[in-house]
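Morning F.,

Quick status update on the modeling queue. The single chain you submitted on Monday has been processed. Sequence for confirmation:
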Amino acid sequence: MSPGDFLHKDAETRLCERYTVAGLVCSLATNSEELLEAARESFLPLPLPAVAADFSIRFWVDHSDRAQPPWPKPYLRGFDHLVFAGFDDRSSMLADLRTRRVIGRFSAGMAADSTYWRMVIFPMLLSVLAGSVGLVELHASCVARDQEGLVLIGPSRSGKSTLALALAEAGLTLFSDDRTFCSLKQGKITAWGMPRPLKLRHEAAVWFEDLRYREPTDVQSGERVFHCEPNRQFGRQRFPGCELRLLVFLERQQSSAFCLTPMKPSAVRSRIELDLMAEACDAAQRQAETIDHLLALPCWRLRYGGTPQVIAEQICATFLNNSAGRSSGGTT
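Structure tokens below.
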């Protein structure tokens, strides 16, 4: 490969598969069996003669590049309809939001790191493409009962993952942690997640017996964390998507509390739009329609503090154990 051909544009990528992700069809071409295995852990495979792909990926792996983890913190740069994501000095991808095509070049070591693809690269890729393929991304965790979804929205350290695990202990299915993608079809909002483990900070060991005698051995963004998979732990089947019924915006406080207040649509819109990437006009218009339908759902602000299991019980009692609470009820 010549120095001027970093992405190796003429490389052969004969390995091709199709998948569904967030209700969309994705085609992937590569020269790496290990990268295909990583994709199968994150997406649902489809037969090749499927409908046209909603977006396409072409990733070439340089098998002579033996870079190894730990990997540096990834970064994003955008210019007009192009978004560049860098993962180390020799591994990166470039997304064209107009054509919904992604190309990239990766080291063999990164291609073999299936956990990194599942936790970082594929979620980042979907975040970059979200607006151009009709998705709205929420900085949120999602749990569901009978495929009816409840989304917990909030900034970092607001307790999304901790409450999601407590709700899983209470009998709900975990759909997504930290990133939830929403699509609008036939007037219904569907929430989608990716099958990545739940990430918990070390202080969560105080609340969960299974973590109490463990050390947080995983490192993410320079911080030691626990990774756990409650659906596997509790023997629950995870479906790829659920119908979204309720939005709960979390505001964590030090003292014990459980205070619910309904939110105005304007406040909900500003919270959602704050985390969205800038999009072209047509993509922004599609996102606006989806956001309008999100605003039609019951939306609550929850100021809370105390034991997550107790808060989870109160959430279930208020919203999930009676139809009135699901549609319009609540306590303050």
